[in-house]
Design brief:
Length: 626
């Protein structure tokens, strides 16, 4: 289909007489085609102003395109589908004043058709409706909305004294499955009691048809706000009241906002054993639930839930986001209030804030499910907020597992896992920082059964985190220190510095210290061999007296000759041993061979000196010679 520069608008106000079929009494009628055919309205702006499109079992295609657009046609089993791949610009599609698009064929063997709507903005207001039902073994058709900018659903209509909100709905009353609902856009807004839902609903609960799936993909925002006090909450829901299973509900967006009593839910109810569907939320930036609303005179919280109030088990609820906010009476929860077991609640986030009666909860009356698992960077509870699992009757309380960096429960905020007759749930918390105000508590108890346990642990610390890595190769110190002072070169020296040493390495571990204290006095005073000879008699007093009384040999700094390292020893004629530092008259390198102990063995004619036992120190046998 080729459109010019300015496509014309399409407006439908068609209202035909009601069908004579008693099953369809009161059902509005409008534009129709035969079953298996397609009714398409494609142009510029498309508006249904109180008009109806009711092709029983047929397919409906509504598209609003901009100028110079090319729309393709693809054949299908029920007619043809429109292809918008060549369209750059779209215009708006509007439903108002109770307009209806209904593709239901109440022939049990016929099923129903599909509905496709494409535009820049799609607005469903004033009690308008898009619907697809099945009553037999054939599945109903699906509903798909694609909007370049936004989808808005809001408002109500008063029809013969009854209030009907705007909605999108697929339903099964038989063994056939209800159709899926999918919405792709930047922003989705559902408010004022409007609803998007898919059900398995029948007066005969033994039917097997399952509810459809509900998938929302909004790149920027999904928001649900408010209630219609006499009819219901603004909501997204998948529900079963039969043997058929409930569908799954998936939302992928940047931000999810649920306020003023609106709800997102997957539920199973009544006595039929149909299992409830799962709820999966992925919001890259935030999930925000705030406030309450009024429905039929009662206060209802803004909520995100997976529940069972019948025989079927509830599904699980998972939330993945960066920031989670639950405040002002809002709640996220799983429940099983009858014979069906509750599902489990799992949340992954960088930060979670519960404030002013914000709640994460699990409630169960049967089984041992209904656990809460939180993997969150930081968790803050304030002003009567709570994380709780509650078990009634003989059911056991669900467990609470929290893995977080920081957990703060302040101003009468609690974490509880309680039961009545069954066992209380267990609470396991792994955190680096836990902060509780005096009136806040963490409990796991049972009124008449066995209480649960509370375990709080810190992450394990790496014992090697503060250690330094040592060099892989040990340094050979012998290669860095000379064996002797090379006196022959007159370049090396041996210097006494007194007290001191090598400073500690500030990056090394502390070692115990063994301090050497040098008690010698290196003041300027003459020291000669005669002085040493005269002081030898004081050897006994040097050992027996205190350090203060012992007078050490005095070394003259100005008049004494330079100290030279002893490089050998020799035996004098009287048998005494002399330490020598001779300057050998040898040619060659600066180093020379020092005297060795083996030299004594090479001279048997000179026996070694005999050391006599004496009370005197043998200092007179040692002389210094340069």
């Amino acid at each position: 289909l080729q459109f010019g520069a300015d496509p014309g608008a399409i407006v439908n106000r068609s209202i035909a007489n009601p069908s004579p079929n008693p099953l369809l009494a009161g059902r509005p009628m409008g534009l129709q085609v035969e079953s298996g055919r397609t009714l398409a309205l494609v142009g510029g702006e498309v508006g249904l102003e109180g008009g109806n499109i009711t092709p029983e079992g047929g397919r409906v295609e509504l598209g609003s395109v901009g100028g110079n657009s090319l729309v393709g046609l693809n054949p299908t089993n029920d007619g043809f589908a429109l292809d918008y791949a060549g369209v750059e610009n779209f215009q708006d599609v509007r439903f108002s004043l109770g307009a209806t698009v209904d593709v239901t064929d109440f022939d049990p063997l016929a099923g129903s058709g599909d509905v496709r709507v494409q535009g820049r903005q799609i607005i469903v207001s004033g009690g308008s409706q898009i619907a697809s039902f099945t009553t037999g073994p054939v599945s109903s058709g699906s509903i798909e909305l694609r909007a370049r900018e936004s989808v808005e659903i809001f408002g109500t209509a008063n029809i013969q004294g009854f209030i009907f909100p705007s909605n999108l709905i697929t339903n099964t009353f038989g063994d056939g499955d209800a159709g899926d609902i999918s919405i792709t856009t930047k922003r989705l807004s559902v408010r004022g009691g409007a609803a998007i839902f898919t059900n398995s609903l029948s007066p005969m609960q033994d039917v097997q048809g399952r509810a459809g799936n509900l998938r929302i993909m909004a790149s920027e925002l999904v928001e649900l706000r408010g209630t219609e006090p006499s009819f219901g909450q603004s909501r997204l829901s998948v529900e079963t009241l039969t043997n058929g299973a409930g569908g799954d509900l998936q939302i992928t967006t940047r931000r999810l906002v649920i306020e003023d009593g609106a709800e997102v839910t997957a539920a199973t109810s009544l006595s039929a054993p149909g299992r409830g569907g799962t709820v999966e939320i992925v919001a890259s930036e935030s999930v925000e639930l705030r406030g309450t609303g009024i429905f039929q005179g009662e206060v209802v919280p803004s909520s995100l839930t997976a529940s069972s109030s019948g025989a079927g088990d509830a599904g699980n609820l998972t939330v993945t986001t960066n920031t989670l906010t639950v405040s002002d009476g809002a709640e996220i929860g799983v429940s099983g209030t009858s014979t069906g077991a509750a599902g489990n609640l799992e949340i992954q986030a960088s930060r979670a804030s519960l404030d002013n009666n914000g709640r994460l909860r699990s409630e169960t009356a049967a089984g041992d499910r209904g656990s809460i698992e939180l993997n969150v960077g930081d968790i803050f509870l304030r002003r009567n907020s709570s994380i709780s699992t509650e078990a009634t009757g003989t059911a056991s309380g669900g467990n609470i597992t929290i893995d977080t960096t920081t957990l703060a429960a302040l101003e009468n905020s609690d974490i509880t896992a309680n039961a009545i007759l069954g066992s209380g749930g267990n609470i396991f918390i792994r955190t680096r920082g836990l902060f509780l105000s005096p009136e806040s508590e963490i409990t796991a108890s049972s009124q008449f059964g066995v209480s649960g346990t509370v375990e709080i642990v810190n992450p394990e610390t790496d014992p090697a985190s503060g250690l330094l890595k040592l060099p892989e190769n040990v340094e050979d110190l012998t290669a860095q220190i000379g064996a002797i002072c090379a006196a022959t070169k007159e370049e090396s020296s041996f210097i006494v510095t007194g007290r001191g040493g090598i400073p500690e390495d500030p990056t090394s571990t502390l070692r115990g210290r063994v301090i050497w204290r040098d008690l010698q006095d290196f003041s300027e005073e003459d020291v000669s061999p005669e002085t040493l000879q005269s002081s030898s008699g004081q050897g006994r007093s040097l050992l027996a007296s205190s350090p203060q009384e012992a007078i050490a040999p005095q070394l003259a700094r100005s008049s004494a000759p330079q100290l030279i390292e002893a490089t050998g020893w020799r035996q004098a004629a009287d048998g005494s041993i002399e330490l020598v530092a001779s300057r050998p008259e040898l040619s060659g390198g600066p180093m020379h061979r020092s005297a060795q102990c083996s030299d004594l063995l090479d001279r048997p004619s000179n026996p070694p000196p005999q050391v006599q036992r004496s009370d005197r120190l043998p200092t007179e046998q040692l002389t210094y010679k340069q």
